[in-house]
Specification:
Blueprint lengths: L14 E4 L2 E4 L5 E3 L7 H4 L17 E3 L3 E2 L6 E2 L4 E2 L3 E2 L6 E5 L2 E5 L4 E3 L1
Antiparallel strand pairs: 1-2, 2-3, 4-7, 4-11, 5-6, 8-9, 9-10
Length: 113
């Protein structure tokens, strides 16, 4: 096999050096020779509250701002306590229940209780 690393884009082992980059002969992807190894731990997304405290599944949070519920005339008031949150991917990164309604909220409007 090749003594050069496989392509990070397509995982093919047909790569070659070109000045300070490696090049994939299959897909044409180029990456620097001095690129640090990416581990699975560093790619994990950490969701943080408004004060920078990391959040995890099952935490209890408190709203720091009144929030209008889109598509409704309902307002979730500041200080509302939300228990048993769930972290999800996407723009709205918290899945929770508020007053019996399943709602997705952004972590930037929460603080950990």
């Amino acid at each position: 096999m090749s003594e050069f690393p496989p392509c990070p884009s397509c995982n093919e082992e047909i790569t070659y050096p070109d000045r300070e980059n490696y090049v994939c002969a299959t897909c044409g992807h180029e990456w620097p020779m001095s690129a640090p190894e990416v581990s699975e731990e560093s790619t994990e997304k950490v969701v943080r509250d408004a004060h920078g405290t990391p959040l995890s599944d099952g935490d209890t949070v408190v709203l720091i701002k009144d929030l209008k519920v889109k598509g409704s005339s309902t307002v979730i008031k500041m200080g509302t306590r939300v228990t048993n949150i769930r972290i999800v991917d996407g723009d709205h990164d918290l899945d929770c229940r508020v007053d019996g309604q399943k709602i997705m909220l952004k972590s930037e409007f929460m603080k950990k209780a």
